Amino acid sequence: MLTFIVRRLLQVPVVMLVLSILIVGLTQLLSPEQRAAPYIRSDQQSARLEQIIRERGLDQPFPVQYAKWLGKTLQGDLGYSTASSKDVIPTIQERLPNTIELTIVTALPILLIGIWLGTLSALNKDKAIDQILRVLTIVGYSLPTFVLGIVLLAVFYGYLGWLPGAGQLSIVNEITKGDLTRYTGLLSLDAALNGRWDMAWDVLQHMFLPALTLTIVSVTTIIKVMRNNMLEALTSDYVRTARAKGLSTRVVNNKHARRNALLSIVTLGGFLIIGLMSGSLITETIFAYPGVGQWVVQAALRFDLSAVLGFALLSALIVVLVSTVVDILYGVVDPRVRFD
Amino acid sequence: MTTLSSNPTAGRSRWQLFWTGPAVRKLRRNPLAITGLIITLLFSLMALFAPLIAKPSGDCLRDLNITNANQVYNPAGGAFWRAIFVPPRTCYKTERLSFAQEPTAPSAEAPFGTVNGYNIFYGLIWGTRTALKMSFIIVAITLAMGVVIGAISGYYGGWIDNLIQRFIDVLFALPSLILTVVVLTILRAGNPGGDPTLPIIVSFCIAGWAGYARVVRGDVLRTRQLEYVDAARSMGARDMRLILQHVIPNSVASVLTLAVLDLATVPLSVAALSFLGLGFESGYAEWGQLVEFSRAWLKPEYKYVLLYPAAFIITFSLAFNLFGDGLRDALDPKSR
């Protein structure tokens, strides 16, 4: 087990290294001047473009360039992002907690609703409720995130005026946001910990529509997988044995069938987090939510290479870490899995 | 003794075999899937005959060498065929009726209204064409790349296979939307104002081939051990011939299903990119952009700005998914 974890963790830097070679290699299609743009922080600096190119070795052969890039990156210098008018690392530090907050607020309901409805669907196979849920599932995953988001925005903000349309905070709270002591980085939690319940409520209201959009789009996958797993478990030998022993339907369903059906939800939970991260590009842009997704879209629009590169490395790191954790967890929850 | 006559399929054409096969029979009995298929085909027809539904105007008329839009209805004239099969790029520009930003309600001239002066109806009809055109090009290239690389990986095995598979592992470290955005940004940074078509196609292909290659590799690993491949090899067939004639044709069933399903998801991803502003330039007939326009006009009185594009895109996606779901069900050996 330990060897497995160590070996799996050792893969992380290798994947990151190869991926960064690929992406930095791709930028070789650009001229040295264009490659220097990420390091220009002010107008004065653009005057010494030549010097920056020489300093960073941008006109050197690729291996030299990459080595210099890697050196700077390992020192925490990923360049300057014009989209956020800040260096890349501070931008990520500022915005990533917001994206994490939105992901947490979304992932929990998705998992709970998905497991509940999937089980319900399987236990009532081919009855009315199952048919309705199956149709709703197809409708749900047919909805493109960007269309659904705009429709929800139009209905709840434009037509009904029930919910705020953009951002993370109302203007009143935006001003006093700086007074908070930041314990966790998650704004709603920090506001509550500071006793600012009005502000916490404000943040949750702002997160409602993006979270709803992501939930509707993602919950259908969980329902579908849960339904299939549950159906498979219900026809398995151990369930038949349990029934033959005379156990009540409730015990058989909850303890025998569902518990096994839940196993692959671990894997799915990993996929879910990764899916929510790419979904954040679209939802955060629609609702002007100040997370990393909105930033990278702004950056891509301005050809802000350092931001896009930094975001790519960040998401790859998250994906690789999440899948490592999922692999390890899988062995923990399912004793049949052997690490060899 | 005639062994041939004992063959139950003798005398039936390939088409009959296909049509009466278990998968197609199952699909035919699924009314939802058939409805989905019919709607999808209607969308394809709409894309193909876009010039006849949303008549060309402005520069498009000029480039088609005609003076009156109704000339496209004359199959005897060259404009009819050119408009349908090789419309000039100007025809993909959404017809612009004015430069007023405020939307105008549906009228005879613009059945779905206008936004930013753009004719929403024209944008949606030609947008369907853009979406399906991009989809076919991207899926075809991605499929070819995936099949070739996957087949090489599975057929040769050893270090080649290992190298390709570890490379795919690395690509999979980025979710496809993010990989697409990253590649697209780098490709376009060199020429920010240029035609985005090629960069979009390239970035989708880079982000998409690996998934196909994985599936093909798995099937090739299974196929290459079959006896007829050994038989062909023993008759002196070379690797290339073995791969192209024997292994690939018998290993592509599952990847083809995947490709058919992707024909529906790729247009939506392209639209999502355009929605974010990363796709086609403003004014190019394209779905995502029309949804983006509606973001500024969320009041109930402008509901047509969002209603028609949203209904269009959702209908397309739903129809294709109903068909795709039925297709998967029909091909899934477990559910038979």
CA(first)-CA(last) distance of chain A: 8 Å
Helix proportion range of chain B: 55-70%
How would a crystallographer describe the biggest sheet of chain B? 2 strands, antiparallel
Summed over residues and divided by their number, the pLDDT of chain A gives a mean of: 85
**Stretches with pLDDT under 50, minimum 5 residues of chain A:** none
Strand percentage of chain A lies at under 5%
Distance between the termini of chain B: 36 Å
Give, in order, the helices and strands of chain B.
HHHHHHEEHHHHHHHHH
Low-confidence spans of chain B: pLDDT under 50, at least 5 residues?
Answer: none
Output the strand order for the largest sheet of chain B: 1-2
Helical residues, percent of chain A: over 70%
Assembly annotation: heterodimer
- Described by the principal axes of the CA atoms, the overall outline of chain B is globular
Using only CA atoms, what is the Rg of chain B? 24 Å
Task: Give the chain pair forming the largest contact, with residue counts.
Answer: A-B, 52 and 48 residues
Structure description:
The complex is a heterodimer of chains A (340) and B (336). Chain A has 340 residues and is mostly helical. Chain A has helices at residues 2-26, 32-36, 43-47, 49-55, 62-74, 88-123, 128-142, 145-159, 171-176, 187-193, 197-234, 237-244, 249-261, 263-286, 292-301, 305-333; strands spanning 80-81, 86-87. In chain A, a hairpin with a 4-residue loop joins strand 1 and strand 2. The radius of gyration of chain A is 24 Å and the shape is globular. Chain A starts with a helix and ends in a 7-residue tail after the last helix. In chain A, 39% of the residues are buried. With 336 residues, chain B is mainly α. Helices cover 65% and strands 1% of the residues of chain B. Chain B has helices at 14-20, 22-28, 31-48, 50-53, 59-63, 78-85, 120-156, 158-171, 176-189, 197-223, 227-234, 239-247, 253-276, 287-294, 303-331; strands at 114-115, 118-119. Chain B has a two-stranded antiparallel ribbon with strand order 1-2. The interface between A and B is large, with 52 and 48 residues.
